[in-house]
Amino acid sequence: MSPIPSRENSNKNSIAESSANQHAEDRKRRDSHIEGRAALSILNTVPPVPISLHDNTESGSYLGREEDLVAEEGKVWCKNCTIGDPSIISGYNGGKYTLWTIELFTTRGTIIKIRRRYNDFGRLRTKLADKYGGITYILEIPPGTYFYQDRFSPRFLEERRRALEYWLNSIVLNPALASTPEVKYFVLRKKY
Questions:
Q1: Which of 6, 121, 176, 190 could cysteine-pair with 136, CB 3.0–4.6 Å?
Q2: Where is the composition biased (Basic and acidic residues) (predicted)?
């Protein structure tokens, strides 16, 4: 008569098989992890490819070039100028300031995007008034804030945005001012 395997023996065998399978899987994972680490160390010795930014929009938006600001005598190089929503930036020493994004639509079909602070508009206005005030009328920029005004409230920022946009259009659409070195500098420099 053949012995009948007991239930206890079959459980021990299945546990032993399961444990052996688990050890084999752990060994495979550890070996693949070590191989992966070796591959990563090789990658660390390869220098990264330099990052470059390309604007692939159909509008051709970019920082301007000198040739975009060229116009025939007595004509302007800009068709329109818009100022978008402001960005409020935290500056040094806990102070904040507003940065305005400006889009200038040129007669060549390109869009020049720049960012300027309120003070940049004031500096441009001062330079233009000093040099060209006798030739053409130059509007005042919108007034600064009073100490009791919240200069970051949405209502105030929208009023200032509209006033700055109107003022800048009065400059870039004026043939006597649009091609001046001061306006070109304001438009073409990363920081004014």
A1: 176
A2: 23-32
